[in-house]
Structure formats: structure tokens, C-alpha cells
Design brief:
Helix content: 25-40%
Shape: globular
Strand content: 15-25%
Number of strands: 11
Radius of gyration: 19 Å
Largest sheet: 6 strands, mixed
Distance between the termini: 47 Å
Length: 280
């Protein structure tokens, strides 16, 4: 039997990740899988990698925000996109806290892994096995997209990216599981909108039988996370504090980001970043 803590979409939230790890240890998890999006917009960087490195992680795939970090370091910066400017400024903040070896590790992360555990064949990716971004796998998405995701080899398919806990099946009966998000919940249903607990899932295997799936939600100190962000001079710290308190996510809110960048006077900072990372 294996008890696997499946963790995804931390988004820089140090306090939430520590709370999830503590909960998983209390639950007796034997393995940890990470599904990507470790950084941005929160204050975590090297310390998040250190938390993961202390775990028995057996599966680790790349998310779209790791992809975005590498694009920034390679000079792929769209100065006409307020969302890209926001990401680039926080990417630079993150990169300044990482070693060259850690950045190389991130560059080399796979898009998909296919572990076999207790005779069960898993497929693990952040989004699609061939693409770490996109919107085809939303919880209410078309069944055909999930059937395509599952393919014809895996018994259990695990993915992240959409920030919602999910269990469904392919038409063939394969399990499809999303553990939700550790650091950035944004429930769609209005009555759930204030539930910003950290999310993850525990999969318990019993040989080749169907695994148990336990969706977990963990309370943590959001004010401590805000204080950490401010003490580390996180860019756009006010937007992050708003996210922690209300669940409002501004990563693609172009008018808000454009205004914040202007009011914070980040123009010179952006120009310095562009000089620092020439296009490869």
C-alpha cells in the first residue's frame, strides 16, 4: 500500500505549502507527487524548493509558471502585455533567490511522468501531457477532452492547473483526479467563495484495485503569509494580500495590473530586467 500526497499549484505560498506538508505527514503519507506551478505570485522561491526537497518526492512535473519563469530568463518578454510584465517582475524576484543549479533543475522538469505504483499505471501532468497551459480541462469541460487526456494506457490520470478539486472518469472507466491548489483557491460558486483553505489530495493504493481518493482542505494563517510577503518586499504585495484575504486573483486582470505597475513605478525596474535577460 502507498499513501501518496498529490500537491499542485503552490504559486509562491510558503505558509500554505508548509501547512499541507504538515497535514500529509500527520495523515501518514509515504510518497509525495508535485504537479507544478511552484512559484508566483507569492513570496516563496528557494525555500519552497527546500520544503519539497525534504520530502520523499517520487514524481515532479513542470507547470506553466515554471515555463513562464524560463521564458523570462530567456528574454521572451512581451512589454505590451500587462500580465506578462507582472509575471516578469515577479519572475525576476524569484530568480534572484535561486541558484544556477536550481534554475537548471527547473529547465529540465518533464511535462509528464508515468509511474507504476502497486501495479497501477498513473499518468501525471500539470495540464495536458504535451502542453502545460490551456483551458481544455476545466471541471465542467467536455467529456471528449478528458477521454483524450486519459488515452488508453493509464489506470489513473492526475493533473493540476485548473485550481479545482475534481474526480471524474473517462468513458472507459479510468480515474481522472485533480488535487486542487495549495496556494491559490478561487471557488466559482458564490457560497464557497470565502473558502480559501489550501487544497491537495491523498491517493491510497491497494494493489491493482481502485485507489482511495481523499480530497483535503487545510486551514493556514493567511495573515502570516501576507506579513512574509511584505517583509520580503514582494512585488505587487498589495495584490497578493488581497488574494490571500478575498480570493481575488489578478494574474490576468489586465486593467488592474497595468494600473498597479504604473502606480508602483515599476517602469525602470522592467527596463533593467529586459537588459538583464537578453533574448536567447
Amino acid at each position: 500500500m502507498h499513501k501518496i500526497a498529490v500537491i499542485s499549484d503552490v504559486h509562491g505560498n510558503v505558509t500554505a505549502l508548509q501547512a499541507v506538508i504538515d497535514d500529509a505527514h500527520r495523515a501518514g503519507c509515504t510518497d509525495f507527487w508535485f504537479l507544478g506551478d511552484l512559484f508566483v505570485p507569492g513570496p516563496g522561491a528557494h525555500d519552497l524548493l527546500a520544503l519539497l526537497d525534504a520530502l520523499p518526492i517520487t514524481t515532479y512535473v513542470r507547470g506553466n509558471w515554471e515555463h513562464g519563469l524560463i521564458e523570462t530568463l530567456d528574454g521572451e518578454i512581451d512589454t505590451g502585455d500587462p500580465s506578462d510584465i507582472y509575471e516578469v517582475i515577479i519572475d525576476d524576484y524569484v530568480a534572484s533567490q535561486l541558484t544556477a543549479a536550481e534554475i537548471m533543475r527547473i529547465r529540465q522538469l518533464p511535462l509528464v511522468e508515468t509511474p507504476v505504483v502497486d501495479g497501477l499505471h498513473f499518468q501525471v501532468s500539470h495540464n495536458l501531457p504535451t502542453k502545460d497551459s490551456g483551458h481544455t480541462l476545466q471541471p465542467t469541460g467536455d467529456q471528449a477532452a478528458f477521454d483524450q487526456l486519459a488515452g488508453d494506457q493509464a489506470d489513473v490520470v492526475v493533473y493540476g492547473h485548473v485550481h479545482h478539486q475534481l474526480f471524474r472518469q473517462s468513458q472507459a472507466g479510468q480515474f481522472i483526479i485533480n488535487p486542487g491548489t495549495v496556494g491559490m483557491p478561487f471557488p466559482h460558486w458564490s457560497r464557497f467563495a470565502t473558502d480559501l483553505r489550501a487544497q491537495y489530495a491523498i491517493l491510497t493504493t491497494h494493489g491493482p484495485a481502485m485507489p482511495d481518493v481523499d480530497f483535503r482542505k487545510v486551514t493556514y494563517d493567511a495573515e502570516a503569509e501576507i506579513a512574509l510577503a511584505r517583509s520580503r518586499h514582494l512585488p505587487y504585495a498589495d495584490l497578493y494580500a488581497q488574494q490571500m484575504r478575498t480570493g481575488a486573483v489578478h494574474t490576468h486582470d489586465l486593467p488592474v495590473l497595468e494600473q498597479a505597475t504604473r502606480e508602483l513605478g515599476y517602469g525602470p525596474r522592467l527596463r533593467a530586467i529586459i537588459r538583464k535577460y537578453p533574448r536567447q
